[in-house]
Amino acid sequence: MGLIMAKTKKLKITLVRSAISQKxxxxxxxxxxxxxxxxxxxxxxxxxxxxxxxxxxxxxxxVEEMK
Length: 67
Fold this sequence. Notes:
Elements: E1 10-15, H1 24-32, E2 41-45, H2 48-56, E3 61-65
Antiparallel strand pairs: 1-2, 1-3
């Protein structure tokens, strides 16, 4: 009896603006997404918690949907 994982969308998140001089909560959100330096990218599943984090730092990141 195996579980079948639902097909979730993958997102490529890229940090395009610096988190310097942002509020500590914004800096923590950027770090929790796995982003370190400008132009660094990570791939994440499009889960509700990740989408909420992206919305909170949308002024600092670019998001692309992966195939």
